[in-house]
Amino acid sequence: MSGGRVVTLTANPSLDRTLVLPGPLTRGGVARLGASSTEPGGKGVNVARVLAAAGTDVVAVVPADDTDPLVTALAALSLPLVTVPTGAAVRTNYTLTEPDGTTTKLNEPGTALDAGTRAALTAALAGAAEGARWVALSGSLPPGTPADWYAELVRAVRGTGARVAVDTSEAPLLALLAAGPEAAPDLVKPNSEELAQVAGTTEAELLADPAALRAAVDGLHAGGIAEVLLTLGGDGAVLSTADGEVWSARPPRITVRSTVGAGDSSLAGHVLAALAGAPAAERLRRAVATGAAAAALPGSALPTPGQVDLAGVSVQPGLPGPVPSAPSAARPVPAAGRDVP
């Protein structure tokens, strides 16, 4: 599954602290926590860790001091790193997980990056991307960062020959799409809520109307984006390509334990399959299977190849039919990528 180097950038990395609740969260109450854990995280870091576990040559670029606990933890995992010092501690994010798989995220804002640090990160990313097959830009931007910075980064690595994937939301996603074809990444990975925001509609309306879903995806292709990996939580995902291929997939049956890292794992699964030269349908299969494998694990744990159930994923051509807009008690499954930047 190797086939070339992958570089990830996590502009707003984190230490992910997972707290396991014994039952449903009660506001104002007292909960006696079960086992807890702390993992090095941030969306790009998660992508890099899944790729590394599959034997891929991967480098993670992060803004962090070499003495930061995040860097220490990643070094202990033998993950190759390029660091740019910030002089401040990496943020901590908190995840509360309930026995039924419900996940509540409490994310700190992160450390603001000045113009000099952003320039150093851009240069570090471009240097690491030379000769790489893929570059993944993932997650939220730190406070005070210009919303169009991802567009700037795409332009900075365009000349390296690497394909670029972006997974972000809200203002950074809108600014990236508004920057025009010269800043268009090769792949974006929105979830249904993010795609609805881009399309100027509601998530419920988008999911209830396949024609509206098709129009929203086509709008991304019209802006120069070659592939759209749309994750639909427990309803699977869609992969659409600019040359007209559209595939949808449903995940294997799992017991959801935590959705942290599910979307990142989906992106990693797609990249793994792309590195192996897999066609679109198989890229989607691996994306959905890897995302579901992450959702079946506790806390911030990320899947290894042996935990990925490719055979359990059903893939078919075309868009899915109308999709329920929100999980119900009978369908509590953001399994294929509904996590938070």
From TrEMBL:
<protein>
    <submittedName>
        <fullName>1-phosphofructokinase family hexose kinase</fullName>
    </submittedName>
</protein>
<keyword id="KW-0067">ATP-binding</keyword>
<dbReference type="InterPro" id="IPR017583">
    <property type="entry name" value="Tagatose/fructose_Pkinase"/>
</dbReference>
<keyword id="KW-0418">Kinase</keyword>
<dbReference type="Pfam" id="PF00294">
    <property type="entry name" value="PfkB"/>
</dbReference>
<feature type="domain" description="Carbohydrate kinase PfkB">
    <location>
        <begin position="30"/>
        <end position="304"/>
    </location>
</feature>
<feature type="compositionally biased region" description="Low complexity">
    <location>
        <begin position="326"/>
        <end position="341"/>
    </location>
</feature>
<feature type="region of interest" description="Disordered">
    <location>
        <begin position="319"/>
        <end position="341"/>
    </location>
</feature>
<keyword id="KW-0808">Transferase</keyword>
<comment type="similarity">
    <text>Belongs to the carbohydrate kinase PfkB family.</text>
</comment>
<dbReference type="InterPro" id="IPR029056">
    <property type="entry name" value="Ribokinase-like"/>
</dbReference>
<dbReference type="InterPro" id="IPR011611">
    <property type="entry name" value="PfkB_dom"/>
</dbReference>
<keyword id="KW-0547">Nucleotide-binding</keyword>
